[in-house]
Amino acid sequence: MRFASDNSGPVHPDVMKALSEANEGFALPYGNEDITARAVAAVRETFEAPEASVHFVTTGTAANALALATLTRSFDAIFCTPEAHIEEDECNAPEFFTGGAKLTLIESHNALMDARVLEGAIAKLGSVHGPQRGAVSITQVTERGTLYSLDQIAEIAHIADHAHMPLHLDGARFANACNVLGCTAAEMSWKAGVDAVSFGGTKNGLMGVEAVVMFKPEKAWQFELRRKRGGHLMSKNRYLAAQMEAYLSDGLWLDMAALSNAAAHKLATGLKKIQRVRFDYPPQANMLFVAFPRADHMKLHRDGAQYACYGSLEGPPDEMISARLVCDWSMPDHHIKAFLDHFAV
Amino acid sequence: MRFASDNSGPVHPDVMKALSEANEGFALPYGNEDITARAVAAVRETFEAPEASVHFVTTGTAANALALATLTRSFDAIFCTPEAHIEEDECNAPEFFTGGAKLTLIESHNALMDARVLEGAIAKLGSVHGPQRGAVSITQVTERGTLYSLDQIAEIAHIADHAHMPLHLDGARFANACNVLGCTAAEMSWKAGVDAVSFGGTKNGLMGVEAVVMFKPEKAWQFELRRKRGGHLMSKNRYLAAQMEAYLSDGLWLDMAALSNAAAHKLATGLKKIQRVRFDYPPQANMLFVAFPRADHMKLHRDGAQYACYGSLEGPPDEMISARLVCDWSMPDHHIKAFLDHFAV
Amino acid sequence: MRFASDNSGPVHPDVMKALSEANEGFALPYGNEDITARAVAAVRETFEAPEASVHFVTTGTAANALALATLTRSFDAIFCTPEAHIEEDECNAPEFFTGGAKLTLIESHNALMDARVLEGAIAKLGSVHGPQRGAVSITQVTERGTLYSLDQIAEIAHIADHAHMPLHLDGARFANACNVLGCTAAEMSWKAGVDAVSFGGTKNGLMGVEAVVMFKPEKAWQFELRRKRGGHLMSKNRYLAAQMEAYLSDGLWLDMAALSNAAAHKLATGLKKIQRVRFDYPPQANMLFVAFPRADHMKLHRDGAQYACYGSLEGPPDEMISARLVCDWSMPDHHIKAFLDHFAV
Amino acid sequence: MRFASDNSGPVHPDVMKALSEANEGFALPYGNEDITARAVAAVRETFEAPEASVHFVTTGTAANALALATLTRSFDAIFCTPEAHIEEDECNAPEFFTGGAKLTLIESHNALMDARVLEGAIAKLGSVHGPQRGAVSITQVTERGTLYSLDQIAEIAHIADHAHMPLHLDGARFANACNVLGCTAAEMSWKAGVDAVSFGGTKNGLMGVEAVVMFKPEKAWQFELRRKRGGHLMSKNRYLAAQMEAYLSDGLWLDMAALSNAAAHKLATGLKKIQRVRFDYPPQANMLFVAFPRADHMKLHRDGAQYACYGSLEGPPDEMISARLVCDWSMPDHHIKAFLDHFAV
């Protein structure tokens, strides 16, 4: 019962194989070799964006912070939701990399940014006393497992563009979103008005690779400098590139997302049948946010179940406590069955 | 003829094997698993420092910048040589991570910091108008392939300590130095007065892992926070840890250093016999700095030799041009022979 | 009708006189002279804090940002209200000076921080993924002209202290608050648990001086360094000190606050009698937040009245539009009368 | 005998008078009033640069750091001499305001930057591993009291421009240089290729005002934002502007520089006649760098002479010790006479 995170499972065997194959002889460092060139081409092809600038890093925090730093200035505001990973889970990395830009929180519903509130917040800026218009950042799949429709993304993009601000998309679970929406990478990014994507791989079967994709390549060199300055230019870049190349070969990235989404769907279907389980957020991808009585948590905990539990195990057994359950591509059926069985009694 | 860098060769097969073995089932992210615990223990054992704080990152720049940021304050001076990697090759990463500390350059001889000049420079600081006493950072093996003796390290450590400044050692080629000096990791670090080490693995057969080792663990938590904030906390930390564990098993780290040092020694021995080759720095480890006529460079270039060449290929054929030749653990004999053969004619 | 701000009126004649008297002969720069020593002593005496560290700067933004930077670390959260000057009106200065600390907004009522919400927000922090516990910052008089009681300050101080966080008080209108509450500077600061105060003078009759007062002087030297690094160490410090000395002589600071409070009270009393005027916030000190119909705004605007108007002058004449009216020590009666007369018709 | 600094004397009476006159009634804050408009116009007229952007701040460190931050990026190098105020005397302010740009020191002769060395240092930059080409900054009058000829400035400007880098001039003693060279402000700035000037007033009779003048005004708004973010936007800006307006009225700025230069010349002339006085730098403006025996220092010290002494008062009485002697506009003849008389015995 390993529902702690989609970064707790193993790397896909095809990716491991690609790493082995990349481990042959000498290759120039810092990405000046063939594997990197091929991986960059694969990302561009996947996004149908032959001119896009593509940069590999090892963590999502680095991808987000470097992208935002490249897109904004230190005296700017970056608009995001209160649930945003950049706000909640990056220990001030965006503030650090941007040199002190301010994350300005926009009200959300089911973790989806409210476009009207965004519009109002943007309108307030302008004087020398407050921060300036920097960028808008949204997350797809959101941090609560919900999804923007393509129209919703386009609406936010329109508002951002109207204010001459770029739209960044934190796509740590980009593949899961494409799988659910049945859309292409291009449709969920530049065709909807997105300017830059943190295209995640680590939560979807890679060892540790994310690609930052900027559809307006004018700032590519600046990104390279910021990446180096952040200690994120890998000398042996071929090993990042090999992972990404395998990821995008024969649709592996979408296949793995389909697996994790299906596993979460199966778990959700089972949980919906249990009366004492409440869904805090509508389950749409590979993360479920549910609440159930403390007594169940205690039992699960005793049996070694791993998942994020948002409350103390001590207290009245009937009290509802929220939890997050995440499935990765490798989630075995019997984990799901075992989890559901706990509620059967 | 692949002498461009010691980060251009393959990862050692034992390390690849360890990665495969680590790729089993679920493991909690962010280092909360057994492999990380074992790798940390192995580093502590290697350094005979059971209390040391140990942190893994993927690049040497990250290791250096995070260590220095943890040890100093934004209004401090960090003393280093003009050749230091932190000064020359990190695109202002130390300034970035420290929040604007100043790298103050101390005269060097053969890239070794002059202890007397350091002492004088420290003495000048103190008023509110200039930077304060922050840290001293030296590199072993230096960026020019030379080595401090243990006594020389101890002398600098003594000066730093007298001014209440920590001594940081950039050990990107720490293993090579231990191999040459025939000393232990402890002798070349805390026993000589070093407070923090960037213990390199990437240039010595790993895929991309460095360990920051701080012998006074009071700032361990601060380092963790700075690492996260820098986007350098890997969610799948087990894959860094597995490399480090393999590295320190059965002396693999020293074995690989012995191989690269021996290869460079062989190359140096051959080059010394060639009259038109001049050594810019005494060859002591796995990097050679030599100068030879442009005509030789042109011929080598034509035949695909890879190495850093510090001059233009256009100009008088007799002019001496400097070069850097680096050997890694995997350097095949026939590359060395081929290189030397170019001078035979 | 000059209600734009309490920084738009003239400097008090006694302060101008002190500047003239300070302008005699030579004095060592950077505060190494008698006037600075006397002014520091006067601040300590006013706050009944003989050990406090006292530092003069020229702007409130500098005072706040330097104080917060000295009290927190770059990976911390600073808790404040959504209305806080540090959040709204300093163009990211706190983020800049702290090296990227995050302003975390706590719900407020009448611009007063909700102590219970603060407590809950603090409790959520702790993991390496988010910011750490840094400091709490409140403003007295608040940015909406309201006041904390001494008990309310003590309650917040207690919560902050329990979490080992210092409490900073932005006292741009500190004197006005003391005048309203009828308390001493000590009672409204360290006796209530405040650790550091930005003690304002500029909005209360000085040319441009604020004093940062830290009751735990351990970080005094760090503050000095940060002030210099921020370009805020005045070489001719005697001219700041002379203003502060005059300010604290014979209760001038409280006398001026009494004048501005009384003027605002008179204005408020008049406005309360006008049915179409609504008070957005209870008027407690020298700032009023009121709403009245657009038609009145248009008339006032035509006649040259100066005040912050939070809406467009175009639209339905009946629509209520909010405004801020501020009185300084020099506010002439006839301005108040003229303003009220506009509503008489 | 007050030779400690040109910021230790009084403010010129005309400037005090202007402050008094500015202290009339209400004026909109943050520079939105007539005095600021007039002072900006006066600076533009003085520099014959009707389009220049002009910004007032209170310290030279702020002027330099804000100008450099506006002109460069965090991953850049800023070239300056080892003696530069920005390197030696600003406690890392340039690194702070630029977000971590690196000050790269260029060899100097008599504190004048060596143009050839600069050219070579620029040529070395370019790869992603090191900092990029940011800006060149020189000081006129230099920190050792020497001067660049207009041709020398133009030569450096040409080199900077060729590398697409702006040239910044730290003009803390700009007026003194104009007086010595007999040139206009325009000739010593944009006509010689300078892009931005820190135009000093504080060391030349003002209370505390410097103007940053940028001849290419595209970045004016960015400067305003950085100034606010740095806490350097004065709400009562009229009091800075009034000083600057008086400074530029009827040539007061040049008259005061002429006085301080003449005083230093008189002092130098006297000192040249004393055999045991050695000039460390050629005396050209209002600062002298001389060495003389410790015995003289001891006597002067006993009699209360104030000046920077670069050595200990304890030691052999014959040993030569260096000193800096600075004259301001108000330097009385009898101080000079008294100083020289000490050597008469």
Describe this structure in words.
The structure is a homotetramer of 345-residue chains. In chain A, 40% of the residues lie in helices and 17% in strands. Chain A starts with 12 loop residues before the first helix and ends with a helix. Chain A is built from 13 helices and 13 strands. In chain A, helix 8 links the parallel strand 7 (167-171) and strand 8 (196-200). In chain A, helix 1 packs across helix 10 and helix 2 runs parallel beside helix 10. In chain A, the strands form three sheets. A seven-stranded mixed sheet of chain A has the order 1-9-8-7-6-2-3, with helices on both faces. Chain A is an alpha/beta fold. Chains in contact: A-B, A-C, A-D, B-C, B-D, C-D. Chains A and C meet through helix 5 and strand 3 of A and helix 5 and strand 3 of C.
Q: What proportion of the residues of chain A form beta strands (DSSP E)?
A: 15-25%
Shape of chain A: globular
- Which spans of chain A have pLDDT < 50 for at least 5 consecutive residues? none
Helix content of chain A: 40-55%
The number of distinct helices of chain A, counting runs of at least 4 residues, comes to: 13
The total beta strand count of chain A reads 13
- For the biggest β-sheet of chain A, the strand order reads 1-9-8-7-6-2-3
Radius of gyration based on Cα positions of chain A: 21 Å
